[in-house]
Amino acid sequence: MAISVVLRDEMCNDIGEAIHDSDDVIRFCLPDYSDAAYPCLRFIDPYGDTIFNPLQARAVLDEWDRLYRAFSDHNADALWTDVRKLIVLCSEEPHTYLKFIGD
Description:
103 residues; alpha+beta
């Protein structure tokens, strides 16, 4: 049940390629939905879709970095870095949306 991450424009067109987490690293590292320390990431639904706008992406970036430090798997550094790039792009570009696509 892997999560994919994609950046989309306001017309729902993908910007760049989707990132597929085939090893389920993201799903296993997500904070529990009751964890108030992660006000955005705790709502990523591993079985559904979760969308963040550019303003929310700014908060997601901080949370993503904290989550990485807490659960970093050095075999998954490329995944963490690639998703982080999408988060940054979303936070900097108006009319973009970061979508976590659950299984």
